[in-house]
Write a structure and sequence with these properties.
The chain is α+β, with helices and mostly antiparallel strands and 286 residues long. 36% of the residues lie in helices and 24% in strands. The protein has eight helices and 14 strands. The chain has helices at residues 13-21, 26-29, 36-65, 69-83, 97-102, 129-142, 184-198, 255-263, and strands at 9-10, 32-33, 87-88, 94-96, 117-119, 122-124, 147-156, 168-177, 205-211, 215-221, 227-234, 248-254, 277-278, 281-282. A hairpin with a 5-residue loop joins strand 10 and strand 11 (227-234). Bound molecules: adenosine-5'-triphosphate and magnesium ion. Magnesium ion (MG) binds next to strand 11.
Length: 286
């Protein structure tokens, strides 16, 4: 909105940051005003309303639920998966360069730039798949197929800032080894439905997708196209490096991404591990 001199004012960078950390939707941050007084008045009103909402959310956590949704979601996903015959595994957060190489995460792969290196030979895992491959290859030696395994744990990627990416996030990766490929659509749909139901999400659809690491698969996406989960399958060119010879189906999803969608928040950051946010609320309420 312009004033009589054709001037218009937008929120200052500091105001935008504050409203954004309080969870105000992006579209609102782009509002225009004819005077700075109107703009500042609008800022104060929005801030005070958002502070109240965040305080209510925090109070609910501190007085009623006592556990952040990230923790309870982990628990409900694990329970639903164990119920469906998946076995949980827990593997190291630190992975070797060699493990990443086996996933073709070498300097020519776009994902390579996203890896946090701890030293020349060790990185924070950007995905759970290499460890799951390694563990599964060994389990397959003694257990009969089909075999269902999953892990839930932190993964790390250098991401450019955005509303739906965290540098540190919680991944769920599940895989079923030894199921015939003809069952592709049926099995991948079963996985997607199982995970989304356990997460309390019913507005999603499946979409064909091509991943740089895993090749063709189905993605689970929100109605407006945001990726919630990726699926993949084998035999796959990566399998050789892990000496895996059976067919497989897998699904990977980020728990904070699921929470952001389920709770319809403007961004993902309030759901991640943080010292500023707790369970979807901003703690800076002064
Ligand atoms: P995107 O296209 O959204 O960057 P991706 O295809 O690179 O995701 P995958 O490697 O397929 O991600 O990882 C599986 C799932 O993990 C994604 O569907 C998403 O839910 C979640 N995920 C991936 N990267 C992040 C991130 N940086 N922060 C939060 N969740 C993430
Ligand atoms: Mg993906």
């Amino acid at each position: 909105m312009e004033n009589e001199y054709g001037l218009k004012y937008i929120y200052t960078a500091a105001q935008k940051n504050r409203l954004s950390e309080l969870g105000i939707d992006r579209s609102i941050l782009e509002r225009e005003f004819s005077t700075t007084a109107r703009r500042d008045g609008s800022f104060r009103e929005l801030e005070s309303r958002a502070v109240k909402e965040n305080r209510t959310r925090l109070s609910r956590l501190m007085q009623e639920t006592h556990r952040p949704s990230l923790c309870s979601l982990q628990e409900s996903l694990a329970a639903a998966l164990c119920q469906a015959g998946f076995t949980q595994v827990v593997t190291p957060t630190l992975v070797s360069a060699q493990m990443l190489e086996k996933m073709t995460i070498t300097p020519d792969n776009p994902l390579y730039e996203q890896v946090f290196w701890v030293d020349k030979k060790t990185a924070l895992r950007p995905m759970l798949a290499p460890n799951l491959y390694e563990v599964s290859r060994q389990l397959i030696q003694s257990q009969s197929l089909p075999l269902r395994v999953f892990e839930i744990g932190s993964c790390f990627r250098k991401e450019s800032e955005g509303r739906s990416h965290l540098k540190e996030f919680t991944m769920l990766n599940l895989v079923e080894w030894g199921t015939p490929l003809e069952k592709r659509n049926e099995v991948l749909k079963e996985f997607a439905d199982l995970v989304m139901k356990a997460a309390g999400i019913d507005d999603y659809r499946l979409e064909e997708e091509n991943s740089v690491v895993y090749g063709d698969g189905l993605d689970v996406v929100t109605p407006d196209g945001l990726e919630l989960a990726s699926t993949s399958m084998g035999p796959h060119p990566l399998d050789d490096a892990w000496r895996i010879t059976c067919s497989w189906f897998g699904l990977g999803t980020g728990l904070e991404r699921l929470l952001m969608h389920r709770e319809k928040t403007a961004g993902i950051h309030c759901w991640g591990r943080s010292t500023v946010f707790l369970d979807g609320a901003c703690m800076k309420l002064k």
